[in-house]
Predict the structure.
Amino acid sequence: MNRKTAFSPPYLGIYMIRKLKKIEYELKNIDIQLTPHVFCHAFAITSQLSGADLFDIVRSLSHRKMKTTMIYLKKFFARKQHVMN
């Protein structure tokens, strides 16, 4: 598929749910319930750890406010800091 426009977040959410249902049996032994929201958190964290600009992460997630993206990142880095101490 060769698209010139981005997929909308609602479309991607529906797409991910369908794909996850197809592999549901293979995922039954993992400790976390995978949802499109979990993938958004993973994307934000991975992007931040890879040095991506915060504004790019905000735009990629289609967040209207940087505060929303910061919530994703603060939770992760707070847990990471807690584990290190």
Observations:
- The radius of gyration is 15 Å.
